Amino acid sequence: MRPLSGNFIIALAGLLMPIAFLLAFFWVPPAAEFQKLYGNGQIAKIVFVHVPLAMVSFAAFVVAAGFGAAYLRTRSLRWDALGYATIEVAWLYAVLATVTGAWFSRLAWGAWWNWDPRQTTMFMVLLTYTAYLLVRGAVDDDERRASISAVYAILGAVASLFLYWVVPYLPTVQQTSLHPSGIVVRGGLDASYRLVLLLSLVSMALMFAQLVRLSAAILRLECKFRSAALTN
Amino acid sequence: MTEAFPFFLAWLLTWLALMVYLWRLETKLKTLERQTDEDATNLQGG
Predict the structure, then answer these.
(1) pLDDT value at position A188?
(2) B44: distance to nearest CA of chain A, Å?
């Protein structure tokens, strides 16, 4: 049976997600600056989906590095399961952030993919963690796999930090970027955007926590079965 | 209202993807838990 905390998390996420959507759809006004730039102020609302997905995935990659460090210190497979579960779900979030970003790109700039610095760095992060998932699948021994994964998670987080927060802000890169993050940062959106964005961020983070809990529980059980099969 | 369709579609896609993934994990976990219970029962019985 699922523990109470799991029920609570999923209930809260299940409540907040539709509330954020309804507020975004009916209450938040179209963004004037987006209307001027792209001819449709409503497409600014994609930030309520795209930004939380990207933020949660980035935070998760950093947290996974922490789990990796904890594994290297303690050699407990519990940390390995948590680290893998975190990266697996963060990878899904990063894919969804890329897809919703491409959708915005299609609507605003007329093409699904523009090789915009933001799109490109996100794509590189995705490739980094796709390789992590493939490497994990290629190693059979539990402890060897956990050690490789832990080191990879730490290096991956350093690369992500660089790709998310350094490359897009380099002056030469910023000049060529079409990404509308500047509008959001300088407060070019209505105050209601901040509230709904926060609500959406909380709901997606809660959903993330629940997905990681389930995924880690599955990994622990699978590991137990493998050990039992080896001893029999 | 049709101008809000892109946002609706982005939200729907995300929501569906997360729900399908959640359902997949829940189902897999339940199957494994059932298997654990069966193994424990077999051990007690044997």
Answers:
(1) 64
(2) 16
Could you give the CA distance from residue A167 to residue A204 in angstroms, rounded to a whole number? Answer: 26
Residues contacting A44, CB < 8 A, separation 6+? A30, A31, A33, A34, A180, A189, A193
Q: What tokens appear for A10 in the block?
A: 């999923």
- ipTM of predicted assembly, 2 dp: 0.88
End-to-end CA distance of chain B: 66
- A residues 101-120 closer than 8 Å to B (CB): 103-104, 107
**Cβ atoms < 10 Å from Cβ of A69:** 17
Which residue in B has a C-alpha nearest to residue A47's C-alpha? B7
Is A12 an 8 Å CB contact of chain B?
no
Cβ-Cβ contacts under 8 Å, B10 against chain A: 46, 49-50, 100, 103-104
| Nearest CA distance, B6 vs chain A (angstrom) | 6
Q: What angle do CA A9, A69, A227 make, to 5 degrees?
A: 75
Nearest to A213 by CA among A82, A88, A67, A58: A82
What does pTM read for this prediction? 0.91
